[in-house]
Amino acid sequence: MSAMQPMPGLSTRDTYYLVIPGDAEFTTPYLQYMPGRDVAYGAGGVFAALLLATLATAALARARVFAVAVLASACLMVSMFLRGSLARDTGRVRMYEASLVLATCGASSLLLTAALLLARWVRLLEGAQSPFAQLVAVCGGLVALGVAVLECIGVPLVFGSDAWLRHVGHQLRVGAMAATLGYSGLGLLVAVWKAATNAPHITAEAVALAGPFGLLSAWASFALAQAELPPTSVASTSEAAFYLLGVLPLGLVLLLWVALNAPRLFSHGKDLPLAHRAAGRWSGHYDSHYRYPSLPPDHDYSYPVRVAGPVPADRGLARQPTAEDKVQQAMRRYA
């Protein structure tokens, strides 16, 4: 199949093709080699294990925010399985489109989870009504939703037959990756800043936030390089680079959260004082009776205060001393 010619005014750098070694040639963007079936299925199995681990830790901690991370694991698992199936039948272009969309949606879901955790951490440090925490959460949600929408629109356009629509789809994907990179970089800076200004009691939370934001920045950088560089670059021709920079960072994000038990680590009660929250779930500085993050320590309960009632008028009248009283007074006098 011959390569399509771009419209006047569009550079050929905006059009990419899938060239599989052999007699077949497809006008499919970005992928320049036959994907390894066994490696893709193995990566899908790893994401399936991470899916179960994330689901278990989130269920034990009753952390509903990690439902988004569970969804991300499922998207990445299905994306890898579709990539492995593509090796069997390279004519399934729609399958390759779905794998690209699911991979990006999984990354945006991880970005949303990290943004919600960062907002919860900032709210813990600055107060429940912190405007900065609300800004972090709202911006993270908008960026994650925008990335998913742009990817769902851009990928089908890139695989279309019209050169101008292919160019538009390519620009939408570049914009989505740039937004992911920008927010991940800002999230990394905020996590490091909060860790530096609130050390040394929050190192576990800082690692659980700075690590994922850094890994998501690496993933977005590779996705941008894959979209912007020529199809002969390493980003488009090396399967090892794809798994090291396009798959491994996302898996490490999930693995880091599972290893640190992030659902329990970020299960802070909004009514706990800072002294009982900032120490982290792994420091062991909690009260011996403290069991659940949603309950305050024992000494913070609001016990009822006894109010003194009216004193009877005859309460202070002296009674006549008895013989026993006289004996006790004599014993105290000569003791």
From TrEMBL:
Keywords: Membrane, Transmembrane, Transmembrane helix. The keyword Membrane applies. The chain crosses the membrane at residues 39-58, 65-86, 98-119, 131-159, 171-193, 205-225, 240-260. It comes from the Eukaryota. The keyword Cytoplasm does not apply. Residues 312-335 are annotated as: Disordered. This is Uncharacterized protein.
